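ARCHIVE CARD
Drawer: 12
Card no.: 0347
Subject: one protein chain, sequence and derived structure
Cross-reference: see card 0346
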Amino acid sequence: RENERILFTTFTANLAQDIKENLRKICSTDEMRRIEVIHLDAWISRYLQQHDYGYTIQYGDDLRELWEMATRSTGDDMDYPEGFFEDEWSTIVQAQGISTVQEYVQASLSGRGVRLDRKKRIEVWKVFEEYRTMMNIKKVRDSAAAMNECCELLKEQPDYHPYKSIVVDESQDFGMGAFRLVCRFEYGIR
């Protein structure tokens, strides 16, 4: 139908561009008007900007300083492997949509290489709180936090379903937060 749109999303900007070029070879101009090809981070950034999002989304090394400040101010006496806090933040806290220390203490950490009892989780949470504080001060978000905040905005728009179908390429590179988001704007799933 004329007003039904398809989202074709993937993990990287380069791959999205390649997909768009290949679709142009097999689709008519009218069909291409109904297909949006965009990598997920770009979709998130655009959606958040349309909703007056006051933060800049940063990636990788741009966040290193914030993690160093957070661990220095709260976690110097903690002996965890390099990158532990960032990994725990993205694979547990953000992936599970955890927002409180109570949720973190109760969260499943299966498959993680570092065992954390209740006391250690509370200590680790202090680093996460400091990291959030640093992000707020600098007016930045990492991609996982932006994705979760995008999901929260979408919850406030239960009738927002801009796509009839969604095609996800390279889904093995997507985390749980990405799947939660895709389900939210296609089906309104919480």
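Annotation on reverse: DSSP finds nine helices and five strands in the chain. The longest strand covers residues 6-10.
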